[in-house]
């Protein structure tokens, strides 16, 4: 799937099917979460990263084919999917890439007949998620990997 972005000619959003694509996702996530935000590596990669099938992983590449964004979703319970590990490299933020990757995941979730989505968003990104239709459902922020988060939900 190709989409246009301001100041980028095109980006490509890929539903990950290969180990190489998964490694590209990890490179983005390590740069954003481990290097930039100081999340311990052992907390960043988990059992849902074991293979392309362990979760539904998505990769964003720029017009030159360079990985610039990544995210994943998995089932949280029988009626709810959970978006996780949404990351966009710093130079590409504010260009609509986060919105595109979330849109792609929501379409994938809807195609599987799942009616709702939750996510644990960093508090600084809460307004971003609200603009996409998410509602904060946690009574107060909570700490995860040393970073404050809120749980949010959206009915699809």
TrEMBL record:
<dbReference type="InterPro" id="IPR016181">
    <property type="entry name" value="Acyl_CoA_acyltransferase"/>
</dbReference>
<protein>
    <submittedName>
        <fullName>GNAT family N-acetyltransferase</fullName>
    </submittedName>
</protein>
<keyword id="KW-0808">Transferase</keyword>
<dbReference type="GO" id="GO:0004343">
    <property type="term" value="F:glucosamine 6-phosphate N-acetyltransferase activity"/>
</dbReference>
<dbReference type="Pfam" id="PF13673">
    <property type="entry name" value="Acetyltransf_10"/>
</dbReference>
<dbReference type="InterPro" id="IPR000182">
    <property type="entry name" value="GNAT_dom"/>
</dbReference>
<feature type="domain" description="N-acetyltransferase">
    <location>
        <begin position="12"/>
        <end position="156"/>
    </location>
</feature>
<dbReference type="InterPro" id="IPR039143">
    <property type="entry name" value="GNPNAT1-like"/>
</dbReference>
């Amino acid at each position: 799937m190709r989409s246009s972005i301001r100041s980028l000619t095109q980006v490509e959003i890929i539903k990950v099917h290969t180990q190489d694509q998964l490694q590209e996702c990890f490179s983005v996530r390590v740069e954003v979460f481990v290097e930039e935000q100081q999340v311990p590596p052992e907390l960043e990669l988990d059992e849902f990263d074991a293979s392309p099938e362990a979760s539904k992983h998505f990769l964003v590449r720029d017009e030159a084919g360079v990985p610039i964004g990544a995210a994943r979703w998995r089932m949280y319970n029988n009626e709810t999917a959970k978006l996780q590990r949404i990351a966009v490299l710093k130079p590409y933020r504010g260009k609509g890439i986060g919105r595109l990757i979330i849109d792609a995941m929501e379409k994938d979730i809807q195609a599987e007949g799942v009616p709702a989505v939750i996510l644990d968003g960093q508090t600084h990104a809460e307004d971003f998620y609200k603009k996409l239709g998410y509602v904060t459902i946690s009574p107060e922020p909570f700490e995860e990997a040393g970073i404050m988060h809120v749980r949010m939900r959206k009915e699809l």
